[in-house]
Write a structure and sequence with these properties.
The chain has about 100 residues and is α+β, with helices and mostly antiparallel strands. About 20% of the residues lie in helices and about 25% in strands. It is built from two helices and six strands, in the order βαβαββββ. The strands form two sheets. It has a four-stranded antiparallel β-sheet, sandwiched between helices. The protein has a two-stranded antiparallel sheet with strand order 2-6. Strand 3 and strand 4 form a beta hairpin.
Amino acid sequence: MPNYTITLDEAKEWTSSWRTNPPKDLAKGHLIPGDALRELLATDGVVDVRAYMGVDSTGTQKLMFVGVDVNGNDMIDNNNLIYDSTKPCPPNCDPTSPLYKP
C-alpha cells in the first residue's frame, strides 16, 4: 500500500509557506486518493478530518489532512499521521466537470 503520510516538520513548513507566500495562481481543486481518506478515517478516535493548505519546496500546492477527535482537536502525534497525496488541479482536472472552468 502506498505511503500517504508526511512529517509534522514538512506540514509546518508547507503551511507556513502558504501563509507567508501564497501562490498567485491558486489550484481549482485537488485530486484525493480514496485509499488515503479511508486509511485516515479508519484510525481509532478519528471522527472528522481537517484539511490544511500548503506549498511544498517545489511550489506545488498541497492539501494536507489530519484526523480530528470528538473534541475537535487535531490528532497529530507519534501515533496519528498527517496525510498528503493530493494532486492539484490543474493539471489533474476533469475538464468536463461543471465545477472546472479554465
